[in-house]
Amino acid sequence: xxxxxxxxxxxxxxxxxxxxxxxxxxxxxxxxxxxxxxxxxxxxxxxxxxxxxxxxxxxxxxxxxxxxxxxxxxxxxxxxxxxxxxxxxxxxxxxxxxxxxxxxxxxxxxxxxxxxxxxxxxxxxxxxxxxxxxxxxxxxxxxxxxxxxx
Length: 150
What we know:
The protein is mostly helical. It has a single domain, classed as Arc Repressor Mutant, subunit A. The protein has helices at 2-5, 11-19, 27-57, 69-76, 81-94, 98-105, 111-120, 126-133, 138-149. Helix 7 (111-120) packs parallel to helix 9 (138-149). The longest helix is centred in the first third of the chain and has 31 residues, at 27-57. The N and C termini lie far apart (38 Å).
């Protein structure tokens, strides 16, 4: 996972890409940088959630006299209540789905898709759902359970 987050890009490179006095970045390069950084954000989100899962399992939030991990995230990480609850739910689920976790950690499966998948996946359906999820949008995946359930 650390290899994914390690890049030749530094924060100074990001700044120079967007604020230089030279000619504007070519559109193709701009698009590539946006997609590259989205992958880094996704991989970092996976790493964050894996740490949250460990913190939750070890009840680190209880040391702060918080009623739950979500309450601790809300307070210490300034995360909205619904988002914090969802992140804890997804974090707890990741440990049971190694294929989804691997794609998420590699930056190839967005948090939005992982969130949707963890609502419907079982160990028996993980591989098939992952294969289905990769080429479609997160919005399409969000609607999938409604279609299959109804």
